Amino acid sequence: MRPVVAVTSGEPAGVGPELCARLAEREWPVRPVVLGDLGLLRERAASSGSAAMFQSWLPDADVPSGTVEVLHLPLARPSRPGVLDAANGPYVLGLLDRAISGCQNGAFAAMVTAPVHKGVICESLGGGDALPFSGHTEYLAEHTGTPRVVMMLVGGGLRVALATTHLPLARVPAAITQPALEETLRIVHADLARHFGIAAPRILVAGLNPHAGEGGHMGREEIDVIEPVLARLRAEGMNLTGPLPADTLFVPHTLAQGDAVLAMYHDQGLPVLKHASFGGGVNVTLGLPIIRTSVDHGTALDLAGSGRADPGSLFAALELAATMLAARAAHAAGAAA
């Protein structure tokens, strides 16, 4: 039997619902089940020219080719393409909650997420200076009781993990502490083995400052924080290279020496990866007790309902979830042998 993977349809005013309809275009090694409002999905499929058929998800049901299975969760209010409505913020979070609970109770083997709009969710929750919703990654960590998770983007032949995620740049240096960096590297190392089938991962670690601090002349974070952590973990047997200057890390010769890169902050590593893979990249949350992958793009409100949105990233996210499930099963079998 194919593993069942929950696919959350995301912000209803964005491209997520119509991208989910396009899952009908392929046969998948897993069984995708789209979480969302069935009427919305049918409406967006029709408006974007999709010929997809829909049926309610029943675990034992046969699914004809060209059909999308749907776990119906109703909108709070009808949604129009490109028009955000805070009334539907709780609906979007409800999709995530249902996917998380399904992964935790065994109904789903993994979850794939279409894009959400952070601003409208925060508005629905009351907003304020402290953002009540800063992103999928943080939400999944909180709702699975995971003290630390790691965001990693996969695409274009690259795997780029982040030491910090959605933080103002001014707060990044203080967030890179020895304990936090050590825990992040342990998570990346463990999940490259567990979910990607890499027995002895090689991780390239970026410095924080230009030229990796230039021996302390452009900042001391490399000397005081990064290098001591790398030394400790190397002594345990981890294959870690760095801290490396970020401006020369992403060249073919250096990348060939690693299986993944750890960048210190969001816009240090992701512009390179998205240049190499935009439209086909995948966001992966490492460290969770469940498998979660996601598209690498936003809600694209200007494209919603037009039929011009590219499903490549959603397709890649579902394919990677399937690959990770297979690698996890093989890893578990090897550990049990």
From TrEMBL:
Cofactor note (record): Binds 1 divalent metal cation per subunit. Can use ions such as Zn(2+), Mg(2+) or Co(2+).
Example of a GO cellular component annotation carried by this entry: cytoplasm
Compartments where found: Cytoplasm
GO biological process: pyridoxal phosphate biosynthetic process; pyridoxine biosynthetic process
Transcription regulation listed as a keyword: no
Enzyme class, first EC level, given as a word: oxidoreductase
Obligatory cofactor(s): Zn(2+); Mg(2+); Co(2+)
Record Gene3D superfamilies: Isopropylmalate Dehydrogenase
Assigned keywords, A-Z: Cobalt, Cytoplasm, Magnesium, Metal-binding, NAD, NADP, Oxidoreductase, Pyridoxine biosynthesis, Zinc
Coiled coil: none
Amino acids binding substrate: H136, T137, K274, N283, R292
Positions contributing to a divalent metal cation binding: H166, H211, H266
Pfam families with a match to the protein in the record: PdxA
Pathway entry: Cofactor biosynthesis; pyridoxine 5'-phosphate biosynthesis; pyridoxine 5'-phosphate from D-erythrose 4-phosphate: step 4/5
E.C. numbers: 1.1.1.262
GO molecular function terms attached to this record: 4-hydroxythreonine-4-phosphate dehydrogenase activity; cobalt ion binding; magnesium ion binding; NAD binding; zinc ion binding
Catalysed reactions listed for this entry: 4-(phosphooxy)-L-threonine + NAD(+) = 3-amino-2-oxopropyl phosphate + CO2 + NADH
Function comment: Catalyzes the NAD(P)-dependent oxidation of 4-(phosphooxy)-L-threonine (HTP) into 2-amino-3-oxo-4-(phosphooxy)butyric acid which spontaneously decarboxylates to form 3-amino-2-oxopropyl phosphate (AHAP).
Protein family: Belongs to the PdxA family.
Known partners and oligomeric status: Homodimer.
Extra remark beyond the main annotation: The active site is located at the dimer interface.
Protein name stated in the entry: 4-hydroxythreonine-4-phosphate dehydrogenase
Gene source species: Thauera linaloolentis (strain DSM 12138 / JCM 21573 / CCUG 41526 / CIP 105981 / IAM 15112 / NBRC 102519 / 47Lol)
